[in-house]
Design a protein that fits this description.
The protein is of the alpha+beta class. It has one domain. The chain has three helices and six strands; from the N terminus they run αβααβββββ. The protein starts with a helix and ends in a 24-residue tail after the last strand.
Length: 146
C-alpha cells in the first residue's frame, strides 16, 4: 500500500512540476508590458485572457488603465478578484484605499464595459512561483501560493 501511495505522490508532484514549468515558459515569453487598445477584440477578451484563473493570470502583474488626460499621481487599476471588470482609482499622493469607478473621470472611457486603453504588465516575481529556471543554472524556489 505504501508503494502505491508513493507512486500517486510522485505522479502528483510530476504534474505540479509540469504546470509550473509551463507557467514559467509562458512568463518568460511574455513582454514586460502589453498595450491593449480600446475597441479591439483583445480588449473585449481582457477578462478571459488575463483574469480569473487563466494561465496568463498567473504570470501577469498589474493591469492599468492608461489615458492622456489622467494625472501622473493617479493609478486606475483592475481588481481581478472582483468580476467582471472592477476598476479602482488610487490617488498616489493620498495613502487611503482606492475608490471603485465605472467610468474613467479623465477620458470618459466606459471601463466597466471593457472600454478604454489598458496596459498589462508582466509579473516581475512570477519566476518564483513558476518552478525552476534551469537554463541559467539558478534554482528558483517552488511555491504553491498561486
Amino acid at each position: 500500500m505504501n508503494e502505491q501511495m508513493d507512486l500517486f505522490e510522485i505522479e502528483a508532484a510530476n504534474k505540479l512540476r509540469e504546470k509550473f514549468e509551463r507557467r514559467y515558459r509562458l512568463w518568460e515569453e511574455m513582454p514586460d508590458c502589453i498595450r491593449i487598445q480600446d475597441g479591439t477584440e483583445e480588449r473585449l477578451r481582457l477578462d478571459d485572457e488575463y483574469c480569473h484563473g487563466s494561465e496568463k493570470w498567473h504570470v501577469r502583474g498589474r493591469i492599468l488603465h492608461e489615458c492622456e488626460e489622467k494625472p501622473e499621481n493617479i493609478n486606475i487599476w483592475l481588481n481581478t478578484v472582483q468580476m467582471p471588470e472592477y476598476w479602482v482609482l488610487n490617488d498616489m499622493d493620498v495613502k487611503y484605499s482606492g475608490e471603485h469607478i465605472l467610468i474613467c473621470p479623465y477620458c470618459g472611457a466606459d471601463l466597466e464595459n471593457s472600454g478604454g486603453d489598458v496596459v498589462v504588465y508582466k509579473n516581475e516575481r512570477a519566476c518564483r512561483v513558476c518552478g525552476l529556471e534551469e537554463e541559467s543554472g539558478r534554482r528558483v524556489k517552488l511555491s504553491l501560493t498561486l
